[in-house]
Amino acid sequence: MKEIHLNRIDLNLLVVFEVLMDTGSVSAAAKKLNKTPSAISHALSRMREQLDDPLMVNVGGKMTASPYALRLIEDVRPILRTVERAVRSIEDFDPATSFRIFRIAAPFVTSWIAGITSRIHEAAPNVGIEWEPFGPSTYKDVQDEVTDLGLHSAHVPLPGGIREEKLPPLKRYVFARDGHPALGSWSKQAWLNWPHVTVGMSHGAPESVNDRIAKIGVERRIGAQIPDFSGVAALVSGTDMLSNQVAAMLGKDIETYQLRVLEIPEPIPDFQFRFFWSERVSHTLENIWLRNIVTQAFSDLVAEAESLVADRGVIPAR
Predict the structure, then answer these.
(1) CA–CA separation, 312 vs 305, rounded Å?
(2) Kind of pairing, strands 149-153 and 273-278?
(3) In terms of C-beta density within 10 A (0-12 exposed, 13-18 middle, 19 or more buried), how is residue 161 classed?
(4) What is the reported pLDDT for 169?
(5) Which of 217, 279, 280, 294 has the fewest CB atoms within 10 Å of its CB?
């Protein structure tokens, strides 16, 4: 690789590079940056020339990053976040006039996302939200301020440089369709006999359902494992599968799909969530504004879900 002269690197090229790495598409990057595809292609060509690396190549119709690009983006993201923070600090954050894009890593609970979006657009019509699932890089993305706010289990240690707000523990229930054959004779054996819907986020609890079942020496049938909570209610209501969840992760779907609520026949510890964000932005106006909206919407979601559970009634185990 030839020598790189920093005075030749245009910061705008790094912005384009980050969006290309996020979208994997010239056309998608152009749309997001409000530029023409030819302008994005030209910017990529300039970076390739200056860095003496292909950076991204078209493989099967999708832009695929080179090994050097994968290493480079890890250094570029925190640099861009630092520049953004420095520029934003010049002026106070005004939701009504801001065009800020916030990134939130959280479970996909439809009614919660809809509630947050509605509140944000009412106060800040030009502000956007990018939702992303929790993944192996989420904590690092929060440290680097690539992700503004995360929600996940409070039962694992946090890395340095991250602040948190732990939420009250939530009781877990079993959800089943109305008319499920197990409703008339609900017991530990019925809980084990019927297949279950599980969600990938379940890791991180103090004791997962699978952990507990292993301890009592029995085996649970997994009927389906899905990546997020938005599909749980539809699967449960349309099949004889069960699902062990906190009510908030189903939200209004409890009522929409007329789900029945049952007591878990085996003692399972409550689940505790936490919100977390970068310590460096903890006192910035925009992060405080975002946290207030998102955490209040989650509190409302929990209250509404628990109210729906109370209205439906919890079927005890025999």
Answers:
(1) 11
(2) antiparallel
(3) middle
(4) 95
(5) 217
298 HSE (CA, 13 A, CB side): 23
Question: Is 6 a residue whose pLDDT tops 60?
Answer: no
pLDDT, one tens digit per residue, over 191-214 is 999 999 998 754 444 445 566 555
Rounded to the nearest 5°, which phi and psi values hold at 66? -80, 165
- State the Cα–Cα distance between residues 37 and 27, nearest whole angstrom: 5
- Over residues 82-111, the pLDDT tens digits come to 777 666 654 578 999 988 889 999 999 999
Number of domains present in the structure of the chain? 3
Mark whether 147 and 157 lie in a shared domain. Answer: yes
pLDDT 10s digits, 136-195:
889 999 998 889 999 999 988 899 999 999 999 999 999 999 999 999 999 999 999 999
Tell me phi and psi for residue 172, to 5 degrees. -100, 145
Strand runs labelled E in the chain:
56-59, 62-65, 101-105, 128-132, 149-153, 162-166, 172-176, 196-199, 222-226, 243-246, 260-262, 273-278, 314-315
Cα–Cα distance for residue pair 61/15, rounded to 1 Å: 22
Chain Cα centroid distance, residue 61: 27
Instruction: List, in order, residues 6 or more apart from 304 with CB less than 8 Å away.
Output: 111, 251, 252
Q: Identify whether 234 is part of a domain.
A: yes
| Long-range contacts of 65-68, Cβ-Cβ distance < 8 Å, separation of 24 or more | 65/21, 68/1
The whole-number pLDDT of residue 239 equals 97
* Residue 60 zone, left/alpha/beta (φ > 0; ψ -120 to 50; rest): left
Q: Is residue 95 part of a domain?
A: no
Q: What is the pTM of this model?
A: 0.73
Q: Inter-axis angle of helices 67-88 and 11-23, to 10 degrees?
A: 120
Q: Are 154 and 166 in contact (CB under 8 A)?
A: yes
Q: What is the CATH number of the domain that holds 42?
A: 1.10.10.10
The residue segments making up the domain with residue 69 are 6-88
Residue type, 188: K
Q: What residues form DSSP beta bridges with 102? A: 129
